[in-house]
Predict the 3D structure of the following.
Amino acid sequence: MTIALDDGGFATNRAAAIRAAEDAFRARQARARLRRRILPVAGIATLIGVWAALVYILKVPTFVAPSPQLVAATLVGRFGILMTNLLPTAIEAISGFLLGNAAAILIATVFVHKKSMEQAFFPVVVLINTIPVVAKAPILVLLLGNGMEPKIAIAALICFFPTLVNMVRGLESVNPQSLELMKVLSASRREIFFKLRMPNALPYLFSALKIAASTAVIGAIVGEWIGSTTGIGALIIQSTYNFDSAMLYATVIVGSAFSVLFFLTITLIERLVVRWQPVAAV
Amino acid sequence: MSTPAVDCRGVSVRFINERRTVTALEDVSFQVEPGGFTSLLGPSGCGKSTLLRVVADLIAPSEGRMSVLGSTPEEARKARALGFVFQDAALLPWRTALENVELPLEVGGRRSLPAGAATPRELLALVGLEGWEGSYPHELSGGMRQRVSIARALLGGPRLLLMDEPFGALDELTRDRLNAELRRIWAATGATILFVTHSVYEAVFLAEQVLVLSANPGRVAALETIALPKDRSLAIRDTAEFVGIASRLRGHLGSVH
């Protein structure tokens, strides 16, 4: 008995050692967390610092490139104008996003159920997708006039293709054994679609939606380059012609900030909807 | 004698593709008694999974006649008389364990269980997963996922349970435990079981009857009745009778090459 008890304090030492190792691990984790938060901020700060230094040292004229301080001042001073112009762009981007993705999901559903439709019309979709946005824009302005419609159409078209391709893949890439299970259960095509294909496609769909969130904004802005008087795109053209570089940069920053916000919103919705993880075979 | 649970007469299955025609099964005949436990044993590629899919109405035979529970495979499938357990558990990853077991009640025109049938919760308890109802497949181990898929196959009290190498991808210890539990589940449910495996030990331990298939093309090499006591523990695998049967079956497998 005494031998078992008297281990020279070994058990106590070991418990202390484990505690110390656990504490060290937690401290390392906390440091890593802090690093993850600070480093991106440091990266952006460095970029702005280099920018400010270059403009100052090389004495770059303001009409060529503004200093970050000037851009910041413009962002604050002309916030009202910037927001007034963001509104139409945001409406066009969001409408185009909804329209383009809804069409893509619908057509992907048709393609999966009717192979002949896919064979007939997929080449057409690819063909339209090869036309650059800047070339689509004038065509659509001629077709749809000078209002919001052509911008929405461009934003929709730009979202459409990635979502269609991803959605078709998501709907088709179901586990073959899950498909056999549905057949053993005598499930109808409709049940197979809603219970198996659709949920299976959701992760693919969200990858496409995240791409679409930023490209829809690009589409709307490019649409506004042609004969538009309001919107982020119009403001970019105006400030370029006026050599108002500070306003140009401020506009670009507002457009990017909106894109990022749009992307983050979709990411948040994805986290709420797609709570599962794919499972590898047993 | 009662109607066999499975009556397979002269079944052949051929797959045709651009390069060649593959005969997966050739002139296969056998019967399974109601309530029996039959193992389909054979090397990979011998068509044993194909045979199981002919029973489940997933593949139509090119020749011959397959009769399941006294009717055609299609009628048996539509009557929900069949349960199928796949090699990959084939759980839907966006559904919890309980929701996966409930799936058969949401498709194929079924909305309720037959009177007296075990509920999804009871079936999860039967396969030893009480308390895991709300877990998602990615939170479960491979063995647990396969238990969920067995519970799902048992929903509605199928008279015939078809199992396609369900434990093939599991580690040996998990596999042993699930083998013992499957014997218990078989006794508890009274269902007829058709079990595909390429493990001689598994085939002998589980079944009352072992059908040995040869490969290229798949033919019946032997049909062996396993004369072991009904109540089996894993220790039975060390007995002389068990070793004798296993080596005889291995002989059948060897002779087919």
